[in-house]
Specification:
This protein is α+β, with helices and mostly antiparallel strands. Helices cover 64% and strands 9% of the residues. The chain has twelve helices and five strands. Helix 2 crosses helix 3 and helix 2 crosses helix 7.
Length: 409
């Protein structure tokens, strides 16, 4: 018994009923329009009635449903009131004729089912009320004669008829609401082209966020590694070599400021703040990066060809971050050991090689929190269709990268 009555007390039943009633109300203007037009047609009888009540209103509703914003409005209404599968709808305007046609078919279905349920909702409850009270009243004989019941009227089945009519109305409301909820995603959901476009947009956004994560990891990670060594070096010579200590402290300030600028840029982009451009450090800025590394106490032997400043901007930006990450890995995993860097152009490729004594080098991701390390470098190299090798080579750790200066080379 409780299971039978549950739809009567469930909130979604009456939310779906409200959705259907809204559809019935929306159909009224189309009926009024048809009533004004059909008398002008050279037809009559049942044909005129069908045209007035079904054909003309249905055609007008379908045409209205082709308006792009109808899908947006109907999707919002369905997600809010139909619940169930319809809650997964992401309302949006129709951008193709296929989507418009599905939305128009849904609009027609919604208004057609709505007017049926609305009519039953108006007619059935009064009938049921009369039937339920029938045994308690004495009917006028003239009323019974109109219906042909005179002499044959039995009042005892009337309450059963009333209760059955209310149950049937409830079943129609529940069934129609559940059916529309299941059908809504098919009619109002995205088309295959829209799903593909949404997937591409998500992929682009994810790729951009991954790029920003690499930028943040390389920039701030390098700055923190350098600052740590610079602070240690300044502390050891603070009394014996104040000049060097001041220079190291100045470098710490510069490194921290640069890291904060990069962090501010990246956070601005994550907040989709168009006024904050992404960090644009290139190989033209490599001198400052190498100088900061030397101030940190690293013996850095760098040979950088002058021609590298002329490489394409996209390659220059990625190459700068690759050098930065290579130096960061050396600082994190090997400490203040001699580092050798060779960077130049050979033919149509940018060639980079970095090495340092193997010593305590434990490889990518070892120690200090297990950052992304060389995995991020591989992502950059893969995007540019370059080549990369990294690993122990005798008693040294060697890191090589070769990047094409132009795509396809």
């Amino acid at each position: 018994m409780v299971r039978v009555l549950r739809p009567l007390i469930e909130r979604k039943t009456w939310q779906r009923w409200a959705h259907l009633v809204v559809g019935g109300a929306l159909l009224m203007p189309y009926w009024f329009l048809a009533m004004g037009v059909t008398p002008l047609l050279p037809v009559g009888g049942a044909v005129l009635l069908v045209l007035m009540l079904v054909v003309l209103p249905g055609a007008a509703v379908f045409v209205t449903g082709l308006v792009p914003t109808v899908r947006l409005l109907e999707g919002s209404l369905a997600a809010e009131l139909l619940k169930g599968p319809a809650e997964s709808l992401v309302p949006g305007a129709a951008h193709s004729w296929e989507s418009r046609t599905r939305a128009a078919a849904w609009f027609t279905l919604h208004l057609g089912a709505g007017v049926v349920v609305s009519g039953l909702s108006l007619a059935v409850p009064p009938l049921a009320f009369v039937m339920l009270l029938a045994p308690l009243v004495t009917w006028d004989e003239r009323f019974l004669e109109v219906w042909g019941w005179h002499g044959t009227w039995h009042q005892w089945p009337a309450p059963l008829i009333g209760a059955a009519s209310l149950a049937a109305l409830l079943a129609v409301i529940v069934g129609a609401g559940a059916l529309l909820s299941r059908l809504a995603p098919r009619f109002l959901g995205p088309s295959a082209a829209e799903r593909l476009a949404a997937a591409e947009a998500r992929a682009v956004k994810l790729a951009e966020r991954n790029r920003l994560a690499r930028e943040l990891h390389d920039s701030v990670g390098h700055a923190l590694s350098v600052v740590t060594l610079q602070a240690g070096a300044a502390g050891r010579v603070l009394d014996s070599d104040p000049g060097f200590a001041r220079e190291a402290l100045g470098a710490i300030e510069e490194s921290a400021r640069a890291a904060l600028e990069d962090l501010d840029h990246v956070l601005g982009l994550l907040r989709e703040d168009a006024s904050r451009p992404a960090p644009q450090a290139t190989l033209r800025d490599l001198g400052r990066l190498l100088e900061q590394t030397r101030i940190a106490g690293v013996e850095l032997d760098a040979e950088v060809g002058l021609e590298v400043e002329q490489v394409p901007a996209a390659v220059s930006r990625e190459a700068y971050r690759i050098v930065q990450e290579g130096l960061t890995n050396a600082l994190r995993h090997a400490g203040r050991v001699p580092v050798r860097l060779r960077l130049g152009i050979a033919g149509e490729r940018l060639e980079m090689e970095m090495s340092n004594p193997l010593g305590a080098h434990r490889g990518d991701g070892a120690g200090h929190g297990g950052g992304r390390g060389l995995a991020g470098v591989r992502e950059r190299v893969t995007v540019l269709r370059g080549d990369m090798t990294a690993g122990a080579d005798g008693d040294a750790w060697r890191f090589r990268v070769s990047l094409p200066l132009r795509s396809g080379t």
